[in-house]
Design a protein that fits this description.
Elements lengths: L4 E5 L3 E7 L2 E9 L3 H14 L5 E8 L5 E5 L9 H10 L5 E8 L6 H19 L2 E5 L1 E9 L3 H11 L2 E6 L3 E9 L3 H8 L6 E4 L4
Antiparallel strand pairs: 1-7, 2-3, 3-6, 4-5, 4-6, 8-10, 8-11, 9-10
Helix pairs in contact: 2-3, 4-5
C-alpha cells in the first residue's frame, strides 16, 4: 500500500555562515505551487541583487513528483543538486530552498561548493519545523433522512471528517478521509439505502 502521508515544513527558516570569505545565506520556505516559487525567486533576487548567485532547489506534490535544481551560474552540479539532495534526504516536499552567495574572492572549487551548498541547505532545513501531513480525499453524496444513522456509523468506522452537511428531505454531505481508507469508505457508503454518490475521486 502506498503511503498517504508526506513531510513538509511549516514556516520560513534561515541559516548563514562564511567559508573562505564567501558568505552563504540560506532560506527554506514552504510552498504549494510553481507560480509561488517564481514569485519568491523574483523577490529574493531583487532583495539580494548585489550577490553573485541565488541557487535553489524545490520539491512539490504530495507524491514528491515535481522538482527542480538550479546552479544560477555556479559550476554545473555544484549547487542546485546538493541543495536538492538535502531536501530529499529529509524526505520533504512542498519546500523551496534558496542559497544566496556573496563571493569573497577565494575560489572554493567544485568540491568546496558542493559541501558549502549542502551545509547551507541542511542547516536551514534542520532549523525548520518539520511536520507529517496526511493526504485527504473528499466524497459527496445525498441520502434520505432515515439513513442518517447508517451514514454516521460509516463516518465513525472510518474516522471521516465532515466537510459540509445539509439536512432536509434530501440530505447532502461531503466527507474527507485519508487516502488509504478512501476505497473502503466508498464501498460502505454504496451499501447504504437511498444514498447516492454525487462526486468522488477516481482511484
Amino acid at each position: 500500500m502506498k503511503s498517504d502521508q508526506y513531510k513538509t515544513i511549516t514556516a520560513l527558516s534561515e541559516d548563514e555562515f562564511v567559508i573562505s570569505r564567501s558568505r552563504f545565506i540560506t532560506f527554506a520556505i514552504p510552498v504549494t505551487s510553481e507560480a509561488q516559487i517564481d514569485e519568491l525567486l523574483d523577490e529574493y533576487r531583487k532583495r539580494y541583487n548585489d550577490s553573485r548567485h541565488v541557487c535553489y532547489a524545490y520539491v512539490l506534490g504530495d507524491k514528491y513528483e515535481h522538482y527542480r535544481a538550479n546552479d544560477d551560474g555556479e559550476p554545473s552540479g555544484s549547487a542546485g543538486r546538493p541543495i536538492l539532495g538535502q531536501i530529499r534526504s529529509l524526505e520533504l516536499t512542498n519546500v523551496l530552498v534558496m542559497v544566496v552567495r556573496y563571493f569573497g574572492g577565494i575560489k572554493l572549487g567544485t568540491g568546496g561548493l558542493v559541501s558549502a551548498y549542502q551545509e547551507g541547505a541542511r542547516n536551514a532545513l534542520e532549523k525548520a519545523n518539520i511536520v507529517t501531513k496526511t493526504i485527504g480525499l473528499n466524497v459527496s453524496f445525498t441520502f434520505d433522512y432515515p439513513a442518517t444513522n447508517d451514514v454516521n456509523h460509516v463516518i465513525n468506522d472510518f474516522n471521516a471528517g465532515k466537510v459540509s452537511e445539509n439536512y432536509g428531505v434530501n440530505c447532502e454531505m461531503t466527507l474527507s478521509v485519508r487516502a488509504n481508507d478512501y476505497a473502503g469508505l466508498l464501498e460502505r457508503l454504496e451499501k447504504v439505502e437511498t444514498l447516492f454518490i454525487t462526486e468522488k475521486v477516481d482511484l
